[in-house]
Amino acid sequence: MGRYEVRDRIAALDPAADHLEIYQLSSGREFPWDYTRALEFALFRTYCVPSISKLLAATGEFRDRPQRRYDDTALLMGEMAAHGYDSARGRDALKVVNRAHGRYAISNDDMLYVLSTFVYDPIDWLTRYGWRPLHEHERLAAFYYYREVGSRMGIRDIPNSYSGFLAFKRDYESRNFVYSATNREIGTYTVDLFAGWFPRPLRPAVRLGVRGMLDDRMLRAFGFEPAPHWVGVLAAAGLRARARALRFFPPRRESVLGRSKNNRTYPGYPSGHEPSDLGAPPPPDDLPAEFRRSSRQNQGDIDMP
């Protein structure tokens, strides 16, 4: 197999009709490590929004079980991507996601924004750090894939075009990325989670490195002190060096989507586990009323399917 055989296969597919296959090839075989890192930062980015971070702080899940929340999200999204959103496992994963979101009063715009980060943040990451340039079909397929996922989550008013959804994302961030104490709280829990994956002596360097990867708007929204300039430069240089080295590697022969044998919460996943095993517990009894989903929906809230 040639190094660019998968890319050439993607180029021969239709990004609208074949979006699932393209997304599986791109995220599962061409760039699995990059998609994982990019989606971590995509979720991190959503915590810059006070309405999102305030709800997360109120549930207490990021304070008490940050690793499980991370693992649940990664595995549920992986199930949909690996098997397809309309497969048996994909539908089960969607049920878990919809049940979790359906317990809370979440605006449609907030859900739409989180969905947009899953499309565009990996594209931004791969544009900077991918071992090869993304094919246009990969960009469009990501949009079509998440548009279908979003519709099955009951998210309304998903733009019909790649450029329209990107414009929504940029406008949303310009209006909603502002500092709040809960942004800082959830952001700190997340940085600590990332650092906890490394031996204790390395954790201060990891925390510094994460701050070095954040843009100015995110730093302001979290209230984090910027890392020294050299930290970001060194991190970017390391990622670009990795990308150059990967050009000489043989292509991955099998997809890694849906596999997570080293998962910290669910060892050996998916062996012995089903998507229904995942997901957050019910809301705490002391959850403020403003976050509870009422039986009568307010305009702008999501109608779960």
Automatic annotation (TrEMBL):
<keyword id="KW-0560">Oxidoreductase</keyword>
<dbReference type="InterPro" id="IPR046366">
    <property type="entry name" value="MPAB"/>
</dbReference>
<feature type="compositionally biased region" description="Polar residues">
    <location>
        <begin position="296"/>
        <end position="305"/>
    </location>
</feature>
<feature type="domain" description="ER-bound oxygenase mpaB/mpaB'/Rubber oxygenase catalytic">
    <location>
        <begin position="57"/>
        <end position="238"/>
    </location>
</feature>
<feature type="region of interest" description="Disordered">
    <location>
        <begin position="257"/>
        <end position="305"/>
    </location>
</feature>
<protein>
    <submittedName>
        <fullName>Oxygenase MpaB family protein</fullName>
        <ecNumber>1.-.-.-</ecNumber>
    </submittedName>
</protein>
<dbReference type="Pfam" id="PF09995">
    <property type="entry name" value="MPAB_Lcp_cat"/>
</dbReference>
<dbReference type="InterPro" id="IPR018713">
    <property type="entry name" value="MPAB/Lcp_cat_dom"/>
</dbReference>
<dbReference type="GO" id="GO:0016491">
    <property type="term" value="F:oxidoreductase activity"/>
</dbReference>
